[in-house]
Design a protein that fits this description.
Blueprint lengths: L16 E3 L2 E10 L3 E10 L7 E4 L10 E4 L2 E9 L12 H12 L15 H10 L7
Antiparallel strand pairs: 1-2, 2-3, 3-6, 4-5
Length: 136
């Protein structure tokens, strides 16, 4: 089987991996039929943990913010796992549902949505549908 993409996130829960000055910990993984939602704690290793800041914490979506140590952020990864290797999905509804769900999780106080895709088709879809959110 051909390798499609390097895995650039930790797969073991609560086992941090360090990439340069950034430590990434998988804190939650919710596997669904067509996608997986992962929560990562991302920490800059050179910023002291004693200071605290108010940041969004997607692992507790009912709270608008939570106290976390300075230099730490929580990041949600929405991973669509049902795209075929060749062509396009037979039914667009799961893809549209995924885009709607991932966009809805991004609150006004959150940063931008970052999209990673390995196919040229996906890049074309991103441009045509303008995936993301405009601030008005």
């Amino acid at each position: 089987m051909q390798r499609k993409c390097d895995l650039y996130w930790p797969v073991a829960p609560n086992a941090p991996q360090t990439f340069g000055l950034i430590e990434v910990t998988l804190t939650n993984e919710d596997v669904q039929a067509t996608h997986t939602i992962r929560t990562f704690k991302v920490r800059h290793t050179k910023i002291r943990r004693s200071a605290t800041a108010t940041t969004s914490n997607p692992s507790t979506p009912t709270k608008s913010s939570a106290k976390t140590p300075a230099g730490e952020r929580y990041v949600l990864q929405y991973h669509y796992t049902n795209w075929p290797d060749h062509g396009v999905p037979d039914n667009p509804l799961p893809v549209l549902s995924f885009v709607k769900k991932s966009s809805a999780s991004n609150r006004d106080t959150d940063g931008p949505i970052v999209v990673h895709c390995r196919s040229v088709l996906c890049h074309t879809l991103q441009q045509k549908t303008k995936i993301g959110r405009s601030k008005t």
